[in-house]
Amino acid sequence: MTARLIDGKALSDAVKADVAHRVLALKQQGLVPGLAVVLVGQDPASQVYVRNKASACEKAGLHSSVIRMEADVTEQALLDVVDGLNNDPAVHGILVQLPLPKHMNSSKVIEAIAASKDVDGFHISNAGLLMTGQPLFRPCTPYGIMKMLESENVPLRGAEAVVVGASNIVGKPMAMLLLAAGATVTLCNSKTRDLGAQTRRADVLVVATGKPKMVTGDMIKPGAVVIDVGINRTPDGKLVGDVDFESAKTVADAITPVPGGVGPMTIAMLLVNTLEAAERSAKHTVIEH
Ligand code: NDP
Q1: Cβ of 120: how many Cβ atoms within 10 Å?
Q2: pLDDT digit string (tens) for 203-222?
Q3: Same domain, 144 and 247
Q4: Cα 145–6–220 angle (5° rounding)?
Q5: Quick one: 149 and 220 in the same domain?
Q6: Does 210 fall in a domain?
Q7: Whole domain around residue 151: which residue ranges?
Q8: Residues 148, 102: one domain?
Q9: Domain membership flag for residue 212
């Protein structure tokens, strides 16, 4: 058996086309959705992510601005920039690219972003709203995964879903979204005993650990849907996921490739979140927390 590939690139193109269409409608009302990205320092991976986000915005007709700050800037200077963006009516979404330099408190910076402009969905108010089943912004990576599962018609009601990795930005919100869709969710971390015994129960398996190829075919239930969130660069420069694709594809029914799976969807959902923030502001129903 060879698993069906879930094409995140094609689906992200469709999502972005829909965003572009809705952006046009907003522009006819005189509103241009705007995303502000703040980049502190010179981290090469962050530079690439920020460039890709800005370029995706422009292609879909959103306005994007990148505010670059030196790595040794004070935390207060960054908080002042965030405050300015919170009060700028042309900015509907604010994203502070992580990781921040070590002398800064990332949580404090994220909490300084107005929850109504927190398009990453990392603000504590947005985490709470998600947890209590009334999401304002869903974090982009798990939101994109939900779109993929929906587009593949994967049944979630009553399904066994196992999420490996419990970070605030991927694993935990993923578990909440799957739970809200009616799945029975198991959330695993690095202390989980006998990980394979957990993963082998999964009808839907989501892996986000940052450990290259750690989930192998023998840890997957035959016929499962496998979502590989990992992005790891091997010493020879190749990108690999957290799932061992070669062995997994012989067991799974469907699997996301790396690259070309979850990654493109993450950016597409950032555009969706920014657009929806602008649509809410157009209706004057922005909720401040
Ligand atoms: P974090 O390092 O923040 O979290 C990793 C999680 O995995 C932790 O909960 C950790 O457990 C758990 N974990 C680590 N090792 C094991 C193990 N052996 N068994 C079970 N659980 C384990 O990572 P992120 O969530 O930020 O990212 C995960 C991966 O996803 C990375 O490869 C990252 O590059 C990628 N990523 C991809 C995105 C995309 O758009 N495609 C977006 C964001 C991330 P514990 O809590 O016990 O430490």
Answers
A1: 21
A2: 999 999 999 999 999 999 99
A3: yes
A4: 80
A5: yes
A6: yes
A7: 140-262
A8: no
A9: yes
169 within ligand 1 shell (Cβ under 6 A): yes
Whether 189 shows a pLDDT value over 90: the answer reads yes
Per-residue pLDDT, averaged over 45-58, amounts to 95
Is 97 one of the annotated active-site residues of the chain? yes
| Residue 157 pLDDT greater than 70, yes or no | yes
First to last CA, the chain: 50
171 lines ligand 1 (CB under 6 A): yes
Which of 98, 170, 262 is the pocket-test mutation for ligand 1 (most atoms within 8 Å of CB)?
A: 170
Number of domains in the chain: 2
Domain boundary among 115, 149, 170: 115
Question: Same domain, yes or no, for 94 and 206?
Answer: no
Q: Respond yes or no: is residue 53 known to be catalytic.
A: yes
Domain of 174: which CATH number?
3.40.50.720
Same domain, yes or no, for 93 and 177? no
- Which one of the listed residues 16, 53, 117, 147 is annotated catalytic? 53
Residue 282 has pLDDT above 90, yes or no: no
Catalytic residue (one of 117, 118, 120, 242)? 120
What would the mean pLDDT of 19-31 be, rounded to a whole number?
A: 96
